[in-house]
Specification:
Layout: H1 2-37, H2 40-47, H3 52-66, H4 69-81, H5 87-100, H6 103-112, H7 117-134, H8 138-166, H9 180-197, H10 200-212, H11 218-240, H12 245-267, H13 269-282, H14 288-307, H15 311-321, H16 341-369, H17 374-396, H18 405-428, H19 437-459, H20 464-494, H21 500-528
Helix pairs in contact: 1-8, 2-4, 3-4, 3-5, 4-5, 4-12, 5-12, 5-14, 5-15, 6-10, 6-14, 7-8, 8-10, 9-10, 9-11, 10-11, 10-14, 11-12, 11-14, 12-14, 13-14, 16-17, 16-18, 16-19, 16-21, 17-18, 18-21, 19-20, 19-21, 20-21
Length: about 550
């Protein structure tokens, strides 16, 4: 007993230091690659996930590149929360991330045990450190990634040295018999390893090192890897607690997929292991660590093959299990997105789009019918509440002090929000009569233009610039009509053809229609981010369209 304790104390620094170096290397490489990529990780996710298959391939490639399924998963949850990525596509990305994370095992098996650490790892660290010190921006981040890559192999070298001494002390003979209870214990041990290390990649690397040093057998290591794959669901369960609905759905999809893949692997482990041994021998690789890496990849691929054809019904099932709660108009506003400003800004844009749709629908009804129903009043109150919440959300987004694209987009959304507020205010006015044939004609024409805007906001398809150009010219035409109508109405009043109160009603009616058209145009202009400039139209004609408050100032 004393000898075993002495042996453990002698090798413990190597094991702890090896795990620490491996984890540090993984973090540095992952963070460095993400920083070097900048916003391209989000850009790729948004544009390469239109089908479950492309979403799967994108998730797999990104995870293999940045060596972090967590980074891919967090970005995916953010895009789903912001409404930029559909939930079925997110499931494809999550499945791909689970397959992509097995690439760490391949790096350890093919390179970690076969390269000279001094000849390979140390130059990576040296070159990477110099790049970090002497460069800036993406190149400096790439240097940190190289440092992390080198540290991974130094960590593996320390683990090998520690496992070499531990091989004589580890006794897994109680689990050597191929019984159900023994296999379940090994799976449980593997899951606990992932939870303790907070990284399935580090747990798999530790298992590969133990296998390579002879401390454990191939069959035992296979069940450990199954458990380590399942252990990642614990983090998903913790992350889902108290999270947003999209985050909860994504976590449940992750848990169900990992559980199903783990169950398949557990039941078919002897056959999958024999298949991996056969394929490895055919490739001329009899190394047990290569066999284990192949086994890990194969059972995740089988899980992906089982789920990908049924991504849509699987997504609908989870959506029924976890339905939307709370206000629909602000469902995209998730405070967890505030740490990712570019995604948070787009989430706010989506919320403003939903609010605009509701507001324009009520405005269209008013333009055609001239009456605001009780239901319409409720819709506008909900829109105003959602507008207030969205404004608060925009105010919480972190600002780095630079006038970059995120700043410009945030500023545009603040402008859009101001115009939406004015639209809601105009629709809520108790006196919105449509008086006069010319006003009726303008109102019905504007209602048709608003229908086009609603259709675009709902589908997000078609030429946005053409829509905004149409709204701009329609608004300009209404302003010009209002100016001529004002002159005609005042002349008719002076000639005694109209009473002053009738004239006032006509002027207010046309002014109200003009306000709806103007604020719709400006809302879409800022919300969509159209390159059309305000200066392309003479905005001076709108000065009289703004209502005057009790203090004589413009509202």
């Amino acid at each position: 007993m004393t000898e075993a304790i002495a042996t453990f104390l002698a090798i413990a620094p190597f094991l702890l230091g090896g795990v620490g170096l491996f984890l540090s290397g993984m973090l540095l490489m992952s963070d460095g690659l993400k920083a070097a990529a900048g916003g391209r990780l989000q850009w790729i996710l948004e544009r390469s996930t239109h089908t479950p298959l492309t979403a799967f391939l994108t998730g797999m490639a990104l995870t293999a590149l940045v060596q972090s399924s967590s980074a891919t998963t967090i970005s995916t949850i953010g895009f789903v929360s912001a409404g930029l990525l559909s939930f079925p596509s997110a499931i494809g990305v999550i499945i791909g991330a689970n397959v992509g994370t097995t690439s760490t095992g391949w790096i350890v098996a093919l390179l970690g045990f076969k390269l000279n650490v001094g000849a390979i790892a140390l130059p990576f660290i040296g070159v990477g450190a110099l790049m970090r010190l002497l460069s800036h921006g993406a190149r400096a981040s790439l240097g940190m990634a190289l440092v992390g890559f080198g540290l991974i192999f130094i960590g593996i070298d320390f683990l090998q040295e520690g496992m070499g001494g531990l091989a004589q002390s580890i006794d897994l003979s109680p689990f050597s018999q191929p019984t159900l209870v023994n296999h379940l214990w090994l799976v449980l041990i593997g899951a606990v390893m992932t939870v303790l290390l907070q990284s399935s990649s580090a747990a798999v690397a530790l298992t590969l090192t133990a296998l390579n040093s002879g401390a454990i057998g191939l069959e035992q290591s296979a069940y450990l890897v199954i458990g380590q794959n399942l252990g990642t669901t614990v983090k998903a369960i913790l992350a889902a607690a108290g999270a947003s609905i999209p985050a909860q759905r994504t976590a449940v999809a992750h848990i169900v997929f990992n559980g199903a893949a783990g169950l398949v692997a557990f039941v078919a482990a002897p056959y999958l292991l024999a298949l991996a041994v056969g394929w490895s021998s055919a490739l001329g690789e009899d190394d047990p660590s290569v066999v284990l890496a192949l086994f890990h990849t194969v059972f995740n691929l089988i899980g992906a093959a089982l789920f990908l054809p049924f991504t849509a019904p699987f997504a609908r099932l989870i959506e029924r299990l976890i339905p939307d709660r709370g206000p629909v108009l602000t469902r995209y506003l998730d405070n967890s997105l505030l740490q990712v400003p570019n995604v948070a800004v787009e989430a706010a844009a989506r919320a403003l789009g939903e609010i605009t749709i509701v507001t324009l629908q009520e405005a269209t009804s008013l333009l055609r019918n001239g009456v605001l129903s009780r239901t319409g009043e409720e819709h506008l109150r909900a829109a105003q509440n959602a507008m207030d919440e969205t404004s608060r959300f925009l105010g919480k987004i972190q600002f780095n002090g630079q006038r970059d694209e995120v700043f410009a987009r945030r500023l545009a959304l603040l402008h859009a929000g101001d115009h939406i507020d004015r639209l809601i205010e105009a629709c809520q006015e108790s006196r919105t009569p449509i008086v006069g044939d010319d006003v009726h004609t303008a109102a019905h024409q504007l209602a048709n233009d608003l229908d086009a805007a609603i259709d675009w906001l709902q589908a997000r398809e078609g030429d946005a610039d053409e829509l905004i150009r149409q709204l701009a010219h329609a608004s300009a035409a209404q302003a010009e009509t209002r100016r001529h109508q004002r002159e005609q109405v005042l002349e008719a009043t002076a000639a005694g053809h109209l009473r002053p109160d009738q004239a006032q009603h006509r002027l207010e009616s046309m002014r109200w229609v003009d306000r709806i058209g103007y604020h719709t145009w400006r809302t879409l202009h800022h919300l969509v981010g159209s390159p059309l400039l305000t200066s392309t139209l003479d905005t001076a004609v709108y000065e009289e369209a703004e209502p005057v408050g009790a203090d004589g100032g413009k509202r």
